[in-house]
Design brief:
This protein has 208 residues and is mostly beta strands. It is built from one helix and eleven strands. 25% of the residues are buried. Keywords: Membrane, Transmembrane, Transmembrane helix.
Length: 208
Amino acid sequence: MAEKEVKHQIALSTIIVIIILILILTGVTIAIPVLFRDSTNSTVSAPPEYVKNECTQSMSTIAVLSSIVNEEPFPYRYYNYIYRPGVILKTVSLIFGFRHDTKSWSLDKITFVDTTTGIDLMQDGDFESNYLNQSYSQCILSNTRNSISDILFDLPYSNDFYYNDQTNVGMTYLSQVLSVVGGRYYNISFYLENRGYQNNSFVLLVGA
């Protein structure tokens, strides 16, 4: 009889441990955003000083979607990512970071599409309003030597306008806060052009 009780206690303990593990794994799945990179994109690990700093310190989580360091000039390239925010999130910040010591970066045609509804949540993703502060915010690192950023019209990817950034040494961040439904999948895309040689850096982050 005593042997049966011991076996019963062991079996019950095993079940409890399994339940606890399931709850832990479920909690991790809920809390952590999921990112799927397009395999055609060439990305490298982002320099840590461009991920966690004075411009991103208010964010508890930061996902690195893209990082480019010291690439040679290239014409507009298409970048595409699928991002899934954790189910508890209601807003995220889409953040583009730029540094270019010799020339500039050009950005155009940003989209942030809810794959459930097909709706693009990005405001003025093609910069056609020609008014940067209407939909975007900027933050410049304190160690930046010089920052020139604006909406231009000479060489857009499409339509009439695009964003151009020449930030020396430090980094300028261009961001927009977006309302999301946690757990859904979002398709993020944009066109990026590199107009000069190193030193240059670009990062794309999603913060919450």
